[in-house]
Design brief:
mainly alpha, Methane Monooxygenase Hydroxylase, Chain G, domain 1, globular
Length: about 270
């Protein structure tokens, strides 16, 4: 790659990097806004977030097109290639997370007028905070190229998973005491799932960032295990007897020794 072309390539890659950070920051910021709209029964704010998804989608398409153009025109290798592939995957994870916030807002519209008991309200707030934190840390890991932080996101997500379990239990309890009807309970359960999925997307981002920095994906561990199992199966197919080969005859056992075809004892053993 000529020097001028390479300089232009890295400028374009830096701009894509900045666009992804801006895109992720938009989603990070909209998570608490959506939660406030949900808990306040604010239909106007909820509709504003739903309408704003078009801008998110447009930015997603723009970033993807720039990545594809770089791949086609520059044919990058090694770290540069990983950076572009990671950019594409992060764009998809960010876009899906934005869609999940929109789904929360649609659930808020369906539940308009429902009063949340204090425990449910508190759990929703905490799930929102945890989802936002995970997403922010994923962005920080991308900005810093921090493989350790990227890898730690999976363990951090356990907190959100536990909150989600507590939240589902609280929905059952609230429904059993007739505080909320069945339809509202179903919508609440879906909303909790959306928050939990935002955390999962942050973990996926961490895995892709780890790949960008180190060249290693968690899926590769599974691929290595699958390859090892395939080799073992192939070995058994090549040697059906395997470990079941008949052992050599023990001369101390009853019956004729293996070197005495007629059954008479060898010389010197009569």
């Amino acid at each position: 790659m000529p020097q001028d072309s390479r300089r232009t390539f890295h400028q374009e890659l830096d701009e894509i990097h900045q666009e992804i950070v801006r895109y992720a920051a938009m989603v990070t910021e909209v998570i608490p806004r959506g939660t406030d709209a949900l808990l306040a029964n604010n239909l106007e704010e909820a509709q504003g977030i739903i309408d704003g998804d078009d801008a998110f989608d447009a930015l997603c398409v723009e970033i993807e097109e720039r990545c594809y153009q770089l791949l086609a025109l520059q044919q990058p290798m090694a770290g540069d290639l990983r950076a572009i592939v990671t950019a594409l995957r992060l764009t998809s994870e960010i876009e899906r997370s934005g869609d999940l916030v929109v789904n929360i807002m649609k659930g808020a519209r369906r539940m308009y007028g429902v009063e949340f008991d204090p425990r449910l309200r508190g759990l929703i707030e905490r799930m929102s905070e945890q989802a936002q934190l995970l997403f922010k840390l994923a962005v920080d890991a991308y900005v810093e190229g921090n493989a350790g932080l990227a890898a730690a996101l999976d363990d951090m997500d356990d907190r959100l998973d536990q909150l989600h379990k507590d939240y589902i239990q609280a929905i059952f309890e609230s429904h059993s005491t007739t505080n909320i009807d069945l339809q509202a309970a179903v919508q609440l359960a879906l909303i909790g799932r959306y928050y939990e999925r935002i955390g999962d997307h942050a973990v996926n981002m961490g895995e892709r960032i780890l790949y960008m920095v180190t060249g290693w994906l968690p899926e590769q561990e599974g691929a290595v295990r699958a390859e090892a199992r395939a080799r073992n199966v192939s070995h058994l197919d090549d040697d059906p007897a395997g470990s079941f080969t008949t052992p050599a005859h023990d001369s101390s056992a009853n019956g004729p020794p293996v070197d005495s075809p007629n059954g008479s004892p060898p010389a010197g053993e009569a």
